[in-house]
Amino acid sequence: MIPITTFAGKKVAVFGLGASGLISASALLAGGADVIAFDDDSASIAKAGAGGIPTADLREIDWSKIAALVLAPGVPLTHPAPHWVVQLAKKANVAVVGDVELFCRERRQHAPRAPFVAITGTNGKSTTTALIAHLTASAGIDTQLGGNIGTAILSLAPPQSGRVHVIECSSYQIDLAPSLDPSVGILLNLSEDHLDRHGTMQNYAAVKERLVGGVPGDGTAIVGVDDEWCERIAGRLAQAGKRVVQISIRRKLSHGFYVEAGRIMRARGGEASAVAELDGIGSLRGMHNAQNAACATAAALALGLDVAAIQAGLRSFPGLPHRMEEIGRRGAVLFINDSKATNADSAAQALACFSDIFWIAGGRPKTGGIESLRRFFPRIRKAYLIGEAAEQFAATLGDAVPHEVTGSIDRALAAAARDGATSSAREPVVLLSPACASFDQYRNFEVRGDAFRALVQALPGLQKR
Question: What is the pTM of this model?
Answer without folding.
Answer: 0.93
